[in-house]
Amino acid sequence: MSDQAAPHQGFASRYRNVLLGLLAVAIFFAAWQAVFLFVPFNPLFISKPTLILQALVSLLVSGDLLHDLAISAVPFVYGFSSAAVVGVALGIVMGWRPRVGYTLDPIMIMFYASPLVALAPLVIVFFGVGVSGKTIIIFLLSIFPFIFNAQAGVHAVDRLLINVVRSLGGSERDLYLKVIVPSVLPYIVAGARIAVGRGLIGVLVGEFFAASEGIGYAIARFGDLFALDKMFACILCIMIIAVALTEGIRLAERVAFPWRVGQ
Amino acid sequence: MPGYIQGRNVNLTFRPPNRGPVRALSNFDIDINEGEFLSIVGPSGCGKSTFLNVLLGLVKPDSGDLQIQGKPIVGPGTDRAMVFQEFGLLPWRSVQDNVELGLELKGMARDARRKVSQPLIEMIGLAGFEGHFPHELSGGMKQRVGLARALATDPHVLLMDEPFAALDAQTRDLMQVELLRVWQEARKTVLFVTHQIDEAIYLSDRVMVMTKRPGRAKTIFPINLPRPRDYEMRTTPEFNELKLEIWNSLKDEITV
Hints:
The complex is a heterodimer of chains A (263) and B (256).
Chain A: H1 11-38, H2 49-62, H3 64-96, H4 98-113, H5 120-127, H6 131-155, H7 159-167, H8 172-209, H9 215-224, H10 228-256, H11 258-261
Chain B: E1 5-14, E2 22-32, E3 37-41, H1 48-56, E4 63-68, E5 71-72, E6 80-83, H2 95-99, H3 101-105, H4 110-123, H5 139-152, E7 157-161, H6 169-186, E8 189-194, H7 197-203, E9 206-210, E10 217-222, H8 237-251
Parallel strand pairs in B: 3-8, 3-9, 6-7, 7-8
Antiparallel strand pairs in B: 1-2, 1-4, 4-5, 9-10
């Protein structure tokens, strides 16, 4: 038997992979910028990275951007966290109790498959322009990945592991804590990554339809004003947040569930 | 003299939903002596594994009498432990935490667990791998962990359900040698289910051939080969004679 650990990806090659990805991003922005060396530039209809960067800096300095982000963050946190709690609970029950699963599956799939954005005007009519309306839209959009992933996680629990813990004298509580929860957790985290994207769509949609502040409202307003550099700055900001959240979750997943990496 | 493990008229029928009932065990009798290594061979689906699950206390028989040291089996207990064919290691636990699982379920404190698991991990040759996760181990290493986990709670009876069937042939040979070494050290009563006649003869004091489903004990062959046994023993005439006898008994039960 050798003393060697299982092969891990070398630091150098990992570094190279990140660089390759960053290179593509850099080329994208450079190409965007370069196009206007050959094409006449009309700031009414398009912007370019240098101007966007200037706009981003000025929005940051003036505090407008942070104000809008703070406004939008409130319904996002409410809607996303309540979707996580309700979705995981519902998903586990649907996975654990087959009859509940069979009963609720069709209606859940119906809602998940349809563009729920269509309901946004109705939600605004019912709950108004404030935090509650936006929270509900975000909740509706981001709950389904939690439901389906928690359900799939329960279904994927290995019967053999249940038998192992039972045969060694484990109680129902042990089964739950030592087998079911660790089995389901990675599924929930994977669901959270999908839910982040859908939740951010909810933020923007809610604020496009009716709002007086917030990052989605800012994007719509700057578009109306043909202030495209500022509009792109806000979009860029949303992109960065989306990437930071999903990648942050992935990083947390690698740290928290190292056994998943090898699967 | 009653057996250390004694089964009389054990019957078990599975009633799966949407399908007809399946009689797994029919008037199954068995006697196992203390410290004995008994192997069970039989055709696929004859109820060998089912019987192990009954002994383990995971499956309740419909009728019959099953005792260990005169005490009837009512559920899982720390006097028995199973080594599973597919290892059954918890993927989110390190080697050490997997070995200590049964101790943890008994409520043993961390330091005390460590005192038990450390010598076991050394015995199975995985010192230095305590922090590794199952996905970082080879099949043979995983089953060593499975064996150490079963031994950790210091059971009297070790149940082994085709423990080496998922391993390649060479690893399997090495694991058999390892198992004999461990058994000679720990002196457990072992009930070993396998499809391989070679393996059964090489390891066992007695080999039991089971009938096709519903499973009963058909013939029991005493294996009077001297111990300690070595690999060369597999080429001796005595070994091959036994192998032929057992095969002749088994082949009538096999339908292809």
